[in-house]
Write a structure and sequence with these properties.
The protein is an alpha/beta fold. The longest helix is centred in the first third of the chain and has 18 residues. Bound molecules: S-adenosylmethionine. The site of S-adenosylmethionine has 23 residues, from strand 8.
């Protein structure tokens, strides 16, 4: 099947994917924080935003194979006005019947840039600045993903490292014109840990195609969907040029 990038609306395109056909879903939706995306209003009414994504979660569950994992990258937004999106998404997904299996802390090591202290050196109203994001992991139906032993490609050292759920990975510096791309290392770990060689991986908010690029490199099929023509073009070029290089952290 290979690595496909589809330029279109998430719901419209996901509806075309057959049910029980994807082994792993890794995605990061827009966070609704007013980021400057090419073709998306990133400042919707919160209720409307949650309702929209609830429809996406329904398709997510439908297309996953039983035992397949959904890895959702998200972080609470706002420091002064904290918005616990990660809790709201978790409730939605649990209500839909998905099983919440674990959470991985992606520690971004960005505290050096810190400026928002709230009430400096005073208990009056100090702020906590999250220097991490979550990868929330859900399964559909059953806990185990069936597969062939010969298609396992994670090494013992990788397995030991990745199963400690505190992942120190710096944010991506090579942005390819996108405001919030995944670091390749994050995707490498999720794909290696949660899928077999030859499996199909979906990212329905694929941006500049990091999931596709890593999938191509390590022998997975993939489907990437994004509404922005510009990001889809970048993703296709990255695939053509095989622009992936596993970096040392
Ligand atoms: C947080 S970014 C994902 C970035 C991606 N992980 C990467 O590595 O480049 C969210 C993406 O959702 C896309 N998007 C927003 N609304 C969409 C919609 N209705 N259908 C499909 N994609 C959409 C945006 O264009 C944006 O690229």
């Amino acid at each position: 099947m290979g690595n496909k990038i589809i330029c279109g609306d998430v719901l419209k395109e996901m509806k075309k994917i057959p049910e029980n056909s994807v082994h792993l879903i890794i995605t990061s939706p827009p966070y609704n924080v007013g980021k400057n995306y090419d073709s998306h209003n990133d400042k919707m009414e919160y209720k409307e935003y949650l309702e929209w994504l609830n429809e996406v979660w329904k398709e997510t569950k439908r297309v996953l194979v039983p035992g397949g994992r959904f890895c959702l990258n998200i972080a609470p937004t706002g420091i002064k006005d904290f918005v616990p999106i990660h809790h709201d998404f978790t409730s939605q997904l649990r209500k839909s019947g998905m099983k919440f299996r674990t959470e991985i802390i992606w520690y971004k090591q960005t505290m050096l840039k810190r400026t928002a202290w709230g009430s400096w050196r005073s208990p009056a109203n100090p702020h906590i600045v999250p220097s991490w994001e979550y990868i929330l992991v859900f399964t559909k139906g059953k806990d185990r993903l069936e597969g062939n032993k010969k298609d396992i490609d994670i090494t013992s050292d990788e397995f030991k490292d990745f199963s400690d759920g505190f992942w120190k990975i710096k944010p991506e510096r090579q942005r390819n014109g996108h405001p919030a791309p995944f670091p390749e290392e994050l995707i490498y770990r999720l794909i290696k840990f949660y899928s077999y060689k030859g499996n199909t991986v979906l990212d329905m908010f694929s941006g500049t195609g990091t999931v596709a690029v890593v999938s191509q490199e390590i022998g997975r099929n993939s489907i990437g969907i994004d509404i922005s023509k510009e990001y889809c073009e970048t993703a296709k070029n990255r695939l053509k040029e095989k622009r992936y290089q596993k970096k040392l952290i």
